[in-house]
Amino acid sequence: MLSALVVATAVLFGFAQPASASAGRCNYGGAADRCVYVKGSGLYVNYIDADIYFVTGQYLEIEIWGDGIYYRGHGDVGWPSDMTHKRLNINKNLANHSWVCVTARTASGAQVTPAACVEIHN
Questions:
Q1: According to the model, what pLDDT value does residue 59 have?
Q2: Helix (H) and strand (E) counts in the chain
Q3: CB of 36 within 8 A of CB of 49?
């Protein structure tokens, strides 16, 4: 009986994978609406999905940054002309209480503020 309890406890706690968690946030207004979605569990981030939706009609770049992460460019191919989407596969732990943020850059290079940000924490 005791050995069955030990095995059951090991299965429940020792070998179980943590449940997936996610966080997202959007900021609206200015030259583009900005959204960030982080998929992971605790401090472990599987990937970041970032979107900007053009309000002004001008072509913009997407900018993503966080703990050791930086991307600035035109996003993934195949999205509608009025938005830019970028997925960054991270697959690592980020610092506790660090932030992942997304914003847009106008044709002049100015950053659209405020950025959309989510906090990474366990």
A1: 67
A2: 1, 8
A3: yes
Nearest to 61 by CA among 69, 70, 45: 70
Alpha helices, DSSP H only, in the chain? 2-9
Q: Phi then psi for 28, rounded to 5 degrees?
A: -115, 145
Angstrom CA distances, 15 to 5, 40, 88, 92, 109, stand at: 15, 18, 28, 20, 48
* CATH label of the domain that carries residue 38: 2.60.40
* Grouped pLDDT means (10 residues each) for the chain, 122 residues: 34 35 88 94 94 80 96 82 90 95 90 94 88
Output the pLDDT for position 77. Answer: 78
- Total number of domains in the chain: 1
Backbone angles phi, psi at 6, to 5 degrees: -65, -45
Domain limits at 101?
A: 19-120
Within-domain flag for 88:
yes
Q: Is residue 51 part of a domain?
A: yes
